[in-house]
Every structure is written in structure tokens, then in C-alpha cells.
Amino acid sequence: MSGQSALRGPALRMGGLVLALVLLVVVGVATGGERFWSTGNLITVLSLAAVTGVVSIGMTFVITSGGIDLSVGAVVGLASVWASTRSTQYMAEDYGWWVIPVTALIVGLVAGLINGLLVAYGKMPAFMATLAMLAAARGLAEIIAGRRTQIVFVEPFFDVLQARPLGVPMIVWIVVVVAAAGWFLLNRTTFGRRTVAVGGNAEASRLAGIKIKRHTLYLYGLTGLTAGIGAVILLARTTAGSSTHGTLLELDVIAAVVVGGTLLAGGRGTITGTVLGVLIFSTLTNVFVLNNLDSSVQAIAKGAIIVGAVLLQQWFASRERTTST
Amino acid sequence: MVDVDPDRAEQRAEQPLLRMRGIVKQFPGARALDGVDLEVRPGEVHCLLGQNGAGKSTLIKILAGAHQPTAGEVLLDEEPVTISDPVAALKLGIATIYQELDVVDGLTVAENIYLGHELATGGVTRRSDAARNTRQILDRLGHKEISPHREVGSMPAAGKQIVSLARALSRDARVVIMDEPSAVLDSEEVGNLHRIVRELTADGVAVVYISHRLEEIRQLGDRITVLKDGRTVATGLPVADTPTRELIKLMTGRTVEYAFPERSGVPEAAAPVLEVEGLGLGDVFQDISLTVRAGEIVGLAGLVGSGRSEILETIYGARRSTSGSVRVGGKRVRSGVDGAVAAGIGLAPEERKSQGLLLDEPVYRNITLSTFARMARGGLLDERAERAAAREQVEALDLRPASVDRDARTLSGGNQQKALLARWLVHGCRVLLLDEPTRGVDVGARSEIYGLIRRLADNGTAVLVVSSEIPEVLGMADRVLVISDGRAVHEGPAEEIDEHAVLDLVMEGSVA
Amino acid sequence: MSSTDDVNQPTQKNHPGSREITMTSSTVFRTRRVSGAFIAAACAALVVAGCTSNEPRETEETATGPVTTTENDEPGDEVVIGFSAPAADHGWMGAITSAARAEAEKYEDVTLQVAEGTNDVNVQISQIEGFIDQGVDAIVLLPFDGAALTDVALEAMEAGIPVINVDREFSSPFAARSTVLGDNYGMGVSAGTYICEQLGDNPDAVVAEIAGIDSLPLTQDRSEGFKDALDDCGLDVDARVAAEFTVESGEEQTANLLSAEPQIDAIWNHDDDQGVGVLAAIENAGRDEFFMVGGAGSINMMEEIQSGDSVVQATVIYPSTQAADGVKLARLIAQNKTVSDLASIGVPRTVQLYAPVVTADNVEEFLPIGFES
Questions:
Q1: Is A261 helix (H, G, I), strand (E, B) or coil?
Q2: What is the domain count for chain C?
Q3: Which of A293, B12, B294, C361 pairs with C237 at a CA distance of 20 to 30 A?
Q4: Is B372 in contact with A319 (Cβ distance < 8 A)?
Q5: Do chains B and C touch (3 or more CB pairs under 8 A)?
Q6: Whole-angstrom Cα distance, residue B49 to residue B54?
Q7: A neighbour chains, 3+ CB pairs within 8 Å
Q8: Using 50, 70 and 90 to split pLDDT, how confident is the model at A321?
Q9: Which of A101, A63, A106, A115 is nearest to A220 (CA)?
Q10: What angle do CA A97, A101, A107 make, to 5 degrees?
Q11: Judgement on whether residues B16 and B109 belong to the same structural domain of the protein
Q12: Does residue B166 share a domain with residue B191?
């Protein structure tokens, strides 16, 4: 009986998210009609969800493992700046456009690995280690960029990243691929199993022979890598690198992940939920702009959604617990 | 010291202080209590007995004001009362000391004792008054040496328990409920606890005492109430006149032999599997050498704090040894847990819930926690193989309910222990380290666990087991090492030593 | 996929500000090309190791305004001026401090003491206290928060040090000897008036507004001026979004806005810093049926205007030379001089700067005072 309810719980939660999204879409269609329900607008919604979406996939892993990464926004900024300095761009002109995305990915990965080293081997609380990285990465980005906006002038970079295979922007394809890879990694591989195990009970996992330090290092590296991908997407979309890129992104990302149903305490994570969470916030913004509503009202609605989702989550959790004892 | 007087219960046959009648507690989907009656007199130690899941915890929570009964009434001095919340319970003079001691680690002893009813004038705490009163209460409890200004986080479990007790006294409690208070204590501390309980009852305080240890109930209790499946099956049984067999029968509904499986005898030729030489860990334990052969069960006996658990954890690589070596099958084991696991050592830890299980993950994933990576191909999980392996173990160990998809949280203590053993069976380990394998396992399920461990040994596993219940070690093991103050003071066949002898050795050891 | 040929072809103008840089940089690069091929790994390592250089090929011109010389510029008494402004976290604010420095350097009788830019009012207060203790001759102060810095400015005035308040006003008229203000309301009016001129004959025209941080009074002032000016010619703001002065937020808000409004005639973007993102979004959406007016006056936007084929037709100046004006006035006050082009004696109490509209016709004139975003 409780076996069933354990199955019912996640399905119900997912149902709630889908319902919320459908509700938003209905409101969008009712108030915006054609303007909302057009290919162009739906692609806009997806494109705007791209950066948050990609980084949220990485964050889902860290949060599932019981950690947190506050530095993603700053790392996006740093990677975008590093990948768009004049010297990087000259190199890209000489060797190929890929120098720019590769630089962004490496910068993100290295920043993430530093986070991982501090958390796993320095035994720092994740909150503090990544808070330090937040400050440092943003500062470094400002120094490198000299607080200037760095316009990208390597045309082949845009030829590739602003292309629209099958009419859908490349950056949306990137999110789709990252999300699919993330789902597979979390649900079908030993890496995912370790992530859930470490989040569920780190001590038990350690005593069962899982190398939790090494795994923690990889987890933060992965999140840093997705921040690097996020930086590439931002470069493609805004045509410029800036130390202000990704400002407060960490909050949007954490909100999307938690609203999606991943437990902030760790031990349970869902990529599908995260994707839905990201889409809900992106659609919300779109519907608000469509109706020419104040950004302050939008902020309130965002807050209400977060509160509602977390309350719902706790309610499901407590129901599961009482029915199973 | 007050001696136990067999007639005491009768002498105190006055009007009951606390009475519960027909208490029912319905949770969504489950009925935890289904008609509980309880009658506690002033000045008695009233023991509450029952297997896990019998409803003891729920009953305590109702008395503590944490749960509201669905039906039934609670009377104090024959007056019906409503215990709406924990504060109301304290106001009525009912104090509860939980198994997980609810003290705040970051506060001092005095601050903890006056937590929630601070001595204060206009919001400013009167620290010296609190300290003076605390000293008086601690004095009454026989613990003058504890400073009111000590931070509670730095104290051992026994000390925290004293603080909890002191808090109950500071509230002028008339009924003190103690949930397995001796579980975290070693025998010397248990003696002290018993003395305090007797002093409390001498002052007219009623103590509701919950314990799994029948021995303890015999020493301390006046009367017994037995719960089974949320119902009172017997109440007011005088301790002195009720044989143990009768109690077990009431609790289980069947007569259970507290029986150990036959020793099968280790063949002389059996090869040594685990060889520990001169192992030490700082000043926790030193120079421990032992050998476990294939098919042999070796027990470590000793008091809490003697270093038993630490020895297991160090062999397992969870703690870094400061001297000595560990070999399995003649090969030196790499340091760290993964080295030990790779060498074929498995550990079923003392704290199953916090150290062993992923409570919100299905049983099969708990069983394959050490092996999922090995079953996987190229990093891809093979859940079918995992389920199959788990199902095989669930059947072999008679793990109930026989579903591999239930969350581990929903299993009883005994079945959780089986899941942990299954983990190492799937792993195929050559050495199994068991820390308190029957803690929190009810009496009925214990002999099953004993049988399982013996079967493991018969299949050629070398088993090293630690338990704080000396008869358990002696009954289960082929050979026993007695540990005292971090040193092995005796080694020999389990059949050739009895509980008294072990205690003698331990006492001598700690004096020296 | 990647080919150096791409680089050498004249690239199409797809991205703001890209053309010139692309062409010249590839030329330069050919001269310093290292022969032989780096393998990808080595290149990546190099990137991480040290490719953070932003050295341009040619030295940039420092901003120099229209040169006018008066007899006031003759050297006078040596004066020490203390200067404090918020952190240069965006292009305009960066230009404020560099313009002030550049102005001070023109005078051999001025020593400008520049405090490290900060967004922490407590730090800024202690900077001013430091100037008072030091006994400087005048203080030029662009406060992070006008009200919060009023007390310490009063303190300075009471100590006999004239304070020149720049851009963000104090809450007491006694706290400053003179105040130099931009005109946020006027910016909105200028932008609105320009749009009216362009669309005046079409009352159904769709006008959109991309504001900056909505909670700031300056944003509200700009929006109000914009609305009032449009009202005057029978237009109104049909769609409005608020970004956050950053490229990213400009792109995001504009993408949503363009999606919501399939047909637009004119857009006013409050801030050229976020304008880079606004233009990127317009580019991504492939829209060009409207014209756009910028705000603040960055070099970027002026170059767009100059190019003639951009949706950006105009930008409204919010002078980044205000603090430079403040330095000039501080010098005059400290040296007891007066403003020579005014008949009245003494430096005025308040100077409110004009918010001119830059178009293709006059962009040459304004380029030198544009700031790098």
C-alpha cells in the first residue's frame, strides 16, 4: 500500500507542476491570444529560459547531493568575460570560433573544481565556500573587464550559435541536450546513484565504500561546467561579455530547482521537475510583459510561487511519511 | 542507597497520580493506539514494556503534549486534564526525557536547565540565580562536579542525560517519563541513573520507565504495563512476581527462547582471514591484535567507551590508525574505507539510521549501495540486476515485507538490520564487522538475527562483532576478546568464560 | 568548422560595434601571427593561463570636451579638492570619475584627491570625514545616497569647506555650496519630444519604453518626462518593461517586449549600458520596423547612430561630465572666482545640465564626451 503511495508522491508533485504551467499558459492565451500562442513567442520563452535552464541542471545535482552552489551567477559572469577579452577573441579569429566556448567551459569547470576542492577536501561548508567564490569570481570578472562591456566581434561564433536548425535557436537545442544528458546522468548512471546516495545519507554512503570526497569534487565541477555553458549562451544572446552577466542568477536557479521538487536537504532530485520549474518562471515573466504589468507585481508572483511550491512539497512529504508508518 | 523492597509496590497502593483510560490515537492510514489504559501511583517506577511499534512512543508523546489523543481521557489526581502542548505538560508537572536528548548543544548547563522558563527580571536573565539553583539541583542528582557554566555540547551522553533530568527537577515535575534512558550509558553510569531514579521516587515522584532490558526492569521497577499492537495487554503487574517468560509471552504473543544458534565449530585448518596486528588509535585504544578465521565469529566485549566501536571503525578505515596493520587474506589493506571495501571488509554500523541506510530510498538500492557500481556497465546502472540480487537476499534472509521497492524507512529495526547484512552478502565480503547488530531490534527478531550471523559464518565469512550486552557476545561468538580502557585484557573461547568473569576483567582493567 | 578565412573576409555588419574592430583586428593579427599550429589543448591551457588581456591595438582617445578657454582658466591659488563617487560599476559611472580626473589635470593649480569609489555609504561618509580632517579646500561629492551623505556634507560646510553636490541631491539645501544636476525628467522629455517629431502625424503609433531599475527615483523621473512629452503630441506608452542597467537584463526584457508587441514604431531605451543587450535582442528577433532612441550617451550608441543603418537613430545625453563640472566649480569657489559668462557675482547655487538629443546630424560633436559602456 505504501509502496504505491511512494510511487504516487513524485507523480503527483510532477502533476502539480504541469498543472501550474498549463494554468500559466491558459492565462497567457486568454490575455495575449495570438501574441502569446505563436511560434515566435514560445521560442522567446524557451530562449529566455536557456541560461537558467542549463545552470539549473548542474545545480540539481549539487542540491540533490545535499550541497549548494551560490557562485554560479558570478562564474557565468567571469566565464563570459574571460571568453570575450580581446586576446581570447584574437585567438578565436586565428584558430577558430570554438576558442570562445572552450574558454568559457574551462573557466567554469576550473571555478567549479575550486569550489569542490574547498568543500570536499577543505571541509568548508558549501554555503561559505561558494559564497567566497561568488565574491571572488565577480571581482575577478570586473578586474579583467575593467567594468566595460566586451562586445564579441568573432562572426563565426554567431554563425554557429545564432543558427536556427529546424527553426529553433541553437541555444534552445543546447538546453535540450544538456537537460537530456542531465536526466540520463542522474537516473541511469552510477554517477547519479552516488549523487542521490551522498545526499540521502553521506555517512552511510561513505561507510558503504563510496568515495564521497572525490564525488563532491566532480559535482561542483559539473555545476561550474554548466555555468560555463550558460556563459556561452549569454555571449551568443547578448553579443557581449560583461562582469554583470549572471547577476543574482543563483537565486533564480535555486528557486527553479527547489520548486521543481528537488529537496534542498538532498537525497532526492528530479531533472524533469527542474525543467518544469525553469519553464514556469520563464512563462510567468513572459505573461507579465505581455500584459504590460509592473515588474514589482511580477516579483511578488514569483515569491508566491516559491512559497506555494515548497509548502506543497512539504505537504506531500508529510503525507508520504504518515501513510508509510 | 535505597534497596529494592519487594513489598514496596503494595505499600504505595494509594490513589493513582496519573491515569489514562481508553486512549486511542488515529493517524492518517494507521491506528497507533487502540485502547490504552495506564495507572501510575506516586513514588513508583512504572515500567512500560512492548516491542517496537507497540505504541510506546506515541503514548509518551501524548503525555508530553506532542500528540493529541483521538479518544480517551487523561486524569491527573483523578481530575481530567487536556495536555494541549509541551508547555501545558510541563505546567501540569509532567516532564519527558527523550532517548534523543533534547538539549541545546550551544548553551551552558544552566541555560539548558532554565530553557523556556528563564529566571529573568524584565527580560534580563539572572545568571547567578540560575547558576546557584542549577548547582543545588545537580547536587541533589549527585553530580556536584558538573559546572553550571559548562557548554552542554562538550559533555558525553550521560552528562546530557543528567542535564535533562535536572531540567525536569527544575520544573518541579511530579511525573517523569524516561524513554530508554540507559541505552546511551555504560554500566557504571546506569548504576548512577538507577540511584537517581530511586531518590526521585523516594520524594514521591512517579517515574514511567521505558526499557528493552528486562534485567534493568527487574532491578528498578515496581510495576509493569505491557503494550502490544497499540493496546494494553496487562497492567499493574508486580515486577517481583512476574517471570520473564511470562513478560515475553505477553509482548510477543508467543514464547520466545532467548536462544542462540548452535556453534558449528571452526575447523582447526580454517585459514585466518582477518589479521590485525598492534593496531592503535591515539589514546583511544592501543596495541590491539586479533585474528579471525574463515567461519569464525569473534566477539569484542567491553563497556561503552572502552574503545570497542572505534576498533571496528579503524579496521574498516573509517578512522585513520596511528599504529599497526590490518591484513585480509595475508594482504595488507589500503587505508581508507574504499581500501577496506575493496579488500572485502563490510561494516554494519552501530547507528543504522544515521550511518547505514538511505531511509528514503527503496530497499534494493540500500542493499546494492556497495555493489551498484560493480553491477553497472560502463557507468550505466543495471537496475534489473540490482533488483534481482536484492530479491534473492530478501528471500534468503526472510526480510519482511518482501518487497524490494519499499522505502527503507518503512522497515522495522530488525528488517533494516537484515537489509544491511544483505548489502554485504551481495557484495560477497570475506570479513564482516558488526557493531551492535541487535540494537533497537525487538526480542522476537533477535534470535533470527543471531541465526543469520551464524549462517554467514558457516558460509565462510569471518565475523567480528561488538555488543554492549555481554550475554549476547558470549552467546553468539566462538571466541571473545575482552576490551577495557582501549586494551585487550583477555582472549579465549566464548564457552569458557561467563558474564561475571567478563565484568571482573573489565573492572580490574579500568582500575589499572 | 573553424577557418581563418572567415576572419579575413570583410564581415557583415550584424553586431553592434563589430565592424571596425573586426577589420582592423584581423589586420593586426596577421602581423603578429605565430607560425605553426598550436594544438587545442595547449591553446586551451594558454587561454586559462593568461588570456585575460584586454589591450586594444591602438590607444583610445581620452574624453575631451569642447574646448573653451576663459580668463578663469589662468592659474590661481593652489587648491586641493577632495573627490568621492560611487563605485564605477557601470560605464557611465566610470566615465564620471575619469572625466573629473581629466578636468583636474588641465589645471596646474588643482590637486584632486580621489577616494576609492564605493557603494557603501558608511565608507563614503568616512571618506568625507577624512577630507575634513585633512582640511581640503573644496569637496566634490557624488553621493551613493544623497540623504545618507547630507549630515557629513553639513559638517564639512560648517568646517568652512565648500561642498559641490553632483547628480544625487542632498536632503538639506545647506549641505552644499553648489549643486550640479543632470536632468532625468528632461531626458524623458527630450526622448519623448524627438519621438513626437518623428511620429507626430500618426496618433496610433506604438511606442515602447525600456526603463532601468524601476525602484530608483531617476527611473521614475525619466518615465514621467517621457510620458508627459508623448502626451503633448497625443501619443502614449503602449508597452513598458524595466531592465536593470545590465546587458543581460536589457536583452531579456527586450526579447519579451518584442514578443509581446508584434508591431512597434518607436522605442526609448533609458540606458545605453543595457542598450547592448537591447540591440542584441532586436537583432535576434530580426526586427527593424521601428527606430530606437537611447539614453545617457555611450560611444557604442553614438557609433550606431553614425553608421546610419542601425535602428538606433538618436540618444539622449545624461552628461557624464557632471563631476568634471563639479571640479571646475569647486576650483572657482575655492579661488573665490565667479562664472565669467554670467553677470551675477559668485558661482550659482544650482546648475542643471541640459539633456540634448544626439542624432546623425550632430553625433560628431558629441562623440568625444561619449563614454565606453
A1: coil
A2: 3
A3: C361
A4: no
A5: no
A6: 9
A7: B, C
A8: low
A9: A115
A10: 135
A11: no
A12: no
